[in-house]
Design a protein that fits this description.
Shape: globular
Largest sheet: 6 strands, parallel
Structural class: alpha/beta
Helix content: 25-40%
CATH superfamily of the largest domain: Thiamin diphosphate (ThDP)-binding fold, Pyr/PP domains
Distance between the termini: 56 Å
Number of domains: 3
Strand order of the largest sheet: 4-3-5-6-8-7
Radius of gyration: 25 Å
Number of strands: 22
CATH architecture of the largest domain: 3-Layer(aba) Sandwich
Number of helices: 23
Oligomer: single chain
Bound molecules: thiamine diphosphate, magnesium ion
Length: 590
């Protein structure tokens, strides 16, 4: 399969490094996040002359990787990061793992020591290909300059097709320094890589038959629907069938939160109605979802009476955790697109179960157990209030990027996501430090969109150096630090499961560092807010700044907890709405 258009330099003699940059240009790269160093240095020289590629010099390679993820999720194009060999490359390991867990299309280009030195423990040598083997969709070591264009073309093809994911291209320094003839377009050589996108018609018909007859169905929507850009089809399917919808942590925004058929997020900190709907369902239609343990709770007790239709582009996901009654391998956009006429045909033939009783039940759960929180007795600022106000004042056109911890769960719960790809977070890996660099990448890719990072005080201290990058490169992100002076989510587990013995979760109550001052030191605007009365005015002040990044340090009550909660390893049936408080199930419901 030839890749791309013939380019002006086809057949020209140049260095491997120039060929690398020309190849990146040929696949359409406009932004690269990275840091140079010895082994990758040859590539940085021709990059200086590129009219197409903007290189954003980050302060830590982890930031480059998360920025590439944020860029990818915000734009729909693959994100690109670049690093030198050894420690530069190993600093990319966390974001590569993160992109792998959340199926984010990303290409990481690393310099490797010269091919003759590979395997000798040369200066700054690390076997990054070996290290990233289990956390990349595919990876390459290039030692022949003639292989550079094809490798780059394949890397982008693999990263963006089928189930998206990270691909690493490690290029030996001597391959970049040697002369080569640049050839483009190239033939991809990928025997055995043929992702199935079109679903099997028989499976689709079988799924439609089950769906038309189901009395308690739920559309269990995962991040795959966003990756497949299938939100329009999803909405049509939901409205055609009248089925309730739940969106997982990685799928928030795939279906509007305000839609009357949306029950919210399922899982460990999901809404009671969403969690319980899955438990009581007679049919789950899993779309680009992977029955993650954070959704299923104790797997053996998950949705015990449900038949399962499982549609996923990755056949390895199907029946991995829960056996599928109707497996459908395919791209969610195509699967849903074909399900719609198949269901219309069922309905036209007169098969259609009455869902009135199911909806009566769902509405009761929604009404009785809405998301909420109890204000602190001492009147301190509540984190949920800050996040709720932020969502209201900033609106649903902005992109929100969370760190990992309590603030992440509240940001998922208390902001209304109405549009796809407006909620970015580290779902599968749960990587603290994701928010600031991912927000930077999102803003670099979508400069006209307001981008808010909602970060924890713990997470923020892992990657806030990228504020310098944002200030210098003119990437005016906004950061709300939900400062509870602790590693709040871990502290919550210590409260609940370790008798309140707070081992090493206190980040210190002396406000070290002072985040507002730190922000100023980084060339950003730094604001601080400690009372509910000041929240709106502070957010508005932050919104008024558009020439620099802004950081708002929200000092909040430290004992707030995330509810509802299904404790790890327990059944979803044991969901608690507050400490020691289970919903009062109406026995007639069972
Ligand atoms: C890199 C990394 N290290 C450790 C953890 C474990 N962990 C999960 S949440 C959390 C606390 C996060 O604290 P903070 O950023 O202040 O958020 P909060 O929960 O207080 O809102 C920790 C340590 C993690 N998820 N990622
Ligand atoms: Mg915290």
């Amino acid at each position: 399969m030839p890749q791309g258009q013939p380019t002006r330099d086809n057949g020209t003699t140049m260095t491997g490094a120039a060929s690398l940059i020309r190849s990146l240009e040929a696949v359409g790269v406009d932004t690269v996040f990275g840091i140079p160093g010895g082994a990758i240095l040859p590539a940085y020289d021709p990059m200086l002359d590129s009219q197409q590629i903007r290189h954003i010099l980050v302060r830590h390679e982890q930031g480059a990787g998360h920025a590439a993820e944020g860029y990818a999720l915000a734009t729909g194009k693959p994100g690109v990061c670049m690093a030198t060999s050894g420690p530069g490359a190993t600093n990319l390991v966390t974001p590569i793992a993160d992109a792998h867990m959340d199926s984010v299309p990303m290409v990481a280009v690393t310099g490797q020591v010269a091919s003759a030195a590979i395997g000798t423990d040369a200066f700054q040598e690390a076997d990054i290909r070996g290290i990233t083997m289990p956390i990349t969709k595919h990876n390459y070591l290039v030692t022949d300059p003639a292989e550079i264009p094809r490798t780059i073309a394949e890397a982008f093809h693999i990263a963006t097709t089928g189930r998206p994911g990270p691909v690493l291209v490690d290029v030996a320094k001597d391959a970049m320094q040697a002369m080569t003839t640049f050839r483009w377009p190239v033939e991809l050589d990928l025997p055995g890589y043929r992702p199935v996108t079109r679903p099997h018609a028989k499976q689709v018909r079988e799924a439609a038959r089950l769906m038309a007859a189901a009395k308690r169905p739920v559309l269990y929507v995962g991040g795959g629907v966003l990756r497949a850009r299938a939100w329009t089809e999803l909405r049509r399917l939901a409205e055609l069938t009248g089925f309730p919808v739940v969106t997982t942590l990685t799928a928030r925004g795939a279906f509007p939160d305000s839609h009357p058929q949306h029950l919210g997020m399922p899982g460990m900190h999901g809404a009671v109605a969403a969690v319980t709907a899955l438990q009581k369902a007679d049919l789950l239609i899993a779309l680009g979802a992977r029955f993650d343990d954070r959704v299923t709770g104790k797997l053996s007790s998950f949705a015990p009476n449900a038949a399962v239709i499982h549609a996923d582009i990755d056949p390895a996901e199907i029946s991995k955790n829960r056996v599928a009654d109707v497996p459908i391998v395919g791209d969610c956009k195509e699967v849903i697109g074909e399900l719609i006429p198949a269901i219309e045909a069922e309905f036209a033939a007169g098969t259609r179960a009455d869902l009135t009783g199911w909806w009566r039940q769902l509405d009761q759960w929604r009404e009785n157990y809405p998301l909420g929180y109890t204000p602190a007795e001492n009147g301190e600022l509540m984190p949920q209030y800050v996040i709720e106000r932020l969502g209201k004042l900033v609106g649903s056109d902005a992109i929100y990027v969370a760190g990992v911890g309590q603030h992440q769960m509240w940001a998922s719960q208390f902001i209304s996501y109405e549009n796809p790809n407006t909620w970015l977070n580290s779902g599968g890996a749960g990587t603290m430090g994701y928010a600031v660099p991912a927000a930077m990448g999102a803003k670099a890719g979508r400069p006209d969109t307001t981008v808010w990072a909602i970060d924890g005080d713990g997470c923020f201290q892992m990657t806030n150096q990228e504020l310098a990058t944002c200030a210098i490169e003119g990437i005016p992100i906004k950061v709300a630090v939900i400062n509870n002076e602790s590693l709040g989510m871990v502290r919550q587990w210590q409260t609940l499961f370790y008798d309140g013995r707070y081992s090493n979760t206190d980040l210190g109550s002396r406000r070290i560092p002072d985040f507002a001052k730190l922000a100023e030191a980084y060339g950003c605007v730094g604001l601080r807010c400690d009372t509910a009365e000041d929240v709106d005015a502070t957010i508005e002040k932050a919104m008024a700044v558009d020439d620099r990044p802004v950081v708002v340090d929200f000092g909040v009550h430290r004992d707030a907890m995330v509810w509802p909660m299904v404790a790890a390893g327990t059944s979803n049936d044991e969901i608690q709405i507050a400490r020691g408080m289970a919903p009062e199930w109406d026995r007639s419901e069972d």
